[in-house]
Specification:
The protein is about 45% helix and about 15% strand. By secondary structure, the chain is of the alpha/beta class. It has a single domain, classed as Alpha/Beta hydrolase fold, catalytic domain (Rossmann fold, 3-Layer(aba) Sandwich). Helix 6 (about 165-175) runs antiparallel to helix 9 and helix 7 (about 175-190) packs across helix 9 (about 205-220). The N and C termini lie far apart (about 60 Å).
Length: about 325
């Protein structure tokens, strides 16, 4: 009974958390949930992975200096407070993002897409070049891909991408965050035991990494508010052929990917970098699908900041 009560309290708190400090704006494509931070500078539009939402998008931008940039984190259709009706296709989702920045009177954005948020970022950059300043992707899908396809990913999904599993993972992260970190890394990266043990040794005593572990787990729960969005992403990512042409993306682009990513194979990054003119490719060694949980996070932040700085007004 105590466990059931704790689960119900956790679920209610998680659902309330996702309505705090966010806004719903009525756009030409329907209501969209978003958070806009920062008062000046170029606007970075954050397209979260799968499953995701505005909260996961905020984690993607945790290193962004909002005294110099604006940061637009939003929930793509089917996630949290954005209804699924408007996002049945990749083109539809790009139109929703366009409608959102129109409603917010944002002329141009720097696109930042991760994982399952990669396709919308590539699509938007090609089809709306006049509204796109630059493109950043991390561990992003760049061609047809089966989400939740790899065995370790399927196992993680079956165990934890549901409300009870999410609650169990939350309790693990609260009581034994190093163990939760190991679960995340082993399910999102292809490592030998020696490699995984070394990474955990480096990260498990870092308060920042332990907090990131808890934040990442919170960003995929509760699943009842993300399930429809994930189903949309699975359908969209299964057939991306001919939906966008990477060679037609002309904006400055930087592509990050973990060399040990088992969720989205590193060839997705190499493919995109080979196709997009003058794209910069940054492959991160001993890094899984979760770049923030790696010893290379500082390098990622440094490379991203250097890339972003070129778009600041002198």
């Amino acid at each position: 009974m105590l466990y059931i009560n704790a689960f119900n309290d956790w679920k209610k708190d998680a659902e309330k958390r996702h309505t705090r400090n966010t806004q719903i704006i009525e756009t030409s494509k329907g209501p969209v949930q978003y958070v806009l931070r920062g008062m000046t500078g170029p606007c970075i539009a954050l397209n979260s992975g799968s499953p995701g939402g505005y909260d996961q998008a905020l984690l993607m931008g945790a290193d962004i200096d909002i005294s110099r940039y604006r940061m637009l984190a939003w929930s793509r259709p089917g996630y949290l407070g954005t209804p699924p009706d408007s996002g049945g296709s990749l083109a539809d989702q790009a139109e929703v993002l366009l409608a959102l920045i129109d409603a917010l009177n944002i002329e141009q954005v720097i696109l930042h897409g991760a994982s399952g948020g990669g396709p919308i970022s590539y699509y938007f950059a090609q089809h709306f070049p006049g509204r796109t300043i630059a493109l950043i992707t991390e561990c992003a899908i760049s061609y047809s891909h089966q989400l939740l396809g790899p065995p370790a990913t399927r196992l993680f999904a079956s165990l934890f991408l549901n409300n009870l599993g999410g609650f169990y993972l939350y309790r693990m992260a609260s009581g034994n965050p190093a163990k939760a970190m190991k679960v995340l890394l082993s399910s999102s990266g292809k490592f030998t035991k020696v490699q995984l043990d070394q990474i955990l040794k480096e990260l498990k005593d870092s308060p920042e990494m332990l907090q990131m572990t808890q934040d990442l787990i919170n960003s995929i729960s509760p699943m009842n508010e993300r399930k429809v969005g994930l189903k949309l992403d699975i359908k969209i990512c299964e057939d991306l052929d001919n939906l966008f042409d990477l060679e037609l993306i002309k904006v400055p682009t930087i592509i990050f990917h973990g060399e040990n990513d088992s969720d989205v194979p590193p060839n997705h990054a190499r493919h995109a970098a080979n196709k997009i003119p003058k794209a910069k490719l940054v492959m991160l060694q001993n890094t899984s699908h979760l770049i923030p949980l790696s010893g290379n996070y500082a390098l990622y932040v440094e490379e991203k900041q250097t890339f972003l700085n070129q778009f600041l007004n002198p």
